[in-house]
Amino acid sequence: MVPLHSPARRRIRGILRTLFLAGALLGCGGGGSGDGVIPPFRTYGGVVVTDFDGDGRDDVAVTATYVSGPPPHAGYVLVFLQQAGGGFAAASQYPAGPDPWGLAVDDLDGDGRPDLVAATSSTRAPEVGVVTDSGGISILLQDGGRPGAFQVSRWVATGGAAQASAIGALAGDAAADIVVADSVLANGRVLLLEGDPSLPAGVRAPVALPVAAGAGSSEVALADLDNDGRSDIVLAAGSGVAVLYQDGAGGFGPALMLPAGLRTQGVAVADLDGDGRTDIVAANAGEAPAGGTGGSTVTVLLQKSAGTFTATSIAVADGARQVVVSDLNGDGRRDLAVVSLVYQAQDVPSRVTVLLQSASDAGRFEAAGSYAGTASASFIAAGDVDGDGLQDIVLADGPGVLVQRRLAPGTFEAVRPLR
Prior knowledge:
By secondary structure, the chain is mainly beta. The chain is 5% helix and 39% strand. A hairpin with an 8-residue loop joins strand 9 and strand 10.
């Protein structure tokens, strides 16, 4: 079956949130024709921050859906380039698969330029109780002759409900591979698309890697967890974090399930405490996806020895969706920021919780601030959006940004539009 928090249903709930807000505006004289008809609008999914055009400034890309009727809806990737004089240029818009959700960035074709992969969970209209297995990904390679611009997207059907992807070399060769999180519970798998530059799309047909019965995944990350020189797969798998270690033969062993919090939605990997071992962070939505309140946490899984993790959970705003790792106060230590959204509370905006790492106790984090986000943000990233050398927080919805205060490191101004 498809989980209640599947991307298709989350997209519908996001649309309902937008309709609610638009309807409130119409009812209050906030615009429109006065007949209650809501015009077409955009909703947003994944967000990434990186220097696309090689000018030393961070740029922003988001997935966007144009809603003008019933699904499937037209999908796009929007790329905002930061300008030398400050601010961002108007977005360049690239058509992608319908209703795109997660967005990944890395160099796919080995030319040294960042490329993009947008995940589509379904290319068909959703039906209650029906699993369509019609997901896919849109691959956008950067145009070598135009820094920061992208070629026409290449569509690759993956099956399942492709909710997110990650890019990295997994197959033992120089080609970059793509790993896709399949959120269909009944499939209990993750999908590997090995890179092959000789093929039109640059990747081979997807190969299913088993995770666990009933384990659909909402986000995926790649990292060498056991320091053997091979990247492993880390999944936000609903009931916890699933780890698939790569073996010496180029395959993957059985999934190791790590308990996290309640309803794990997001995952990130990094060496948090500086001990040379990769750690894991999970965002757990708590009771929100089931219509309740409470129980939302970020779980920090510190790897104390190879394959052994110690978990600590920190309470955050209801409905934690995704977590990003970055130095958010300029002290040289990695911090965390999580975005939370309760889909049922249609008039309540997203919430951003900042967790700063202790200066004296490596790997320990404390909530240092909570901020109102954009109306419907499920995705979060970090980067320098104003050229001051400080890390800011970027939300996909809008996109919106929380700029770090120069005179108060680790604190942020109220959310505002990117441009």
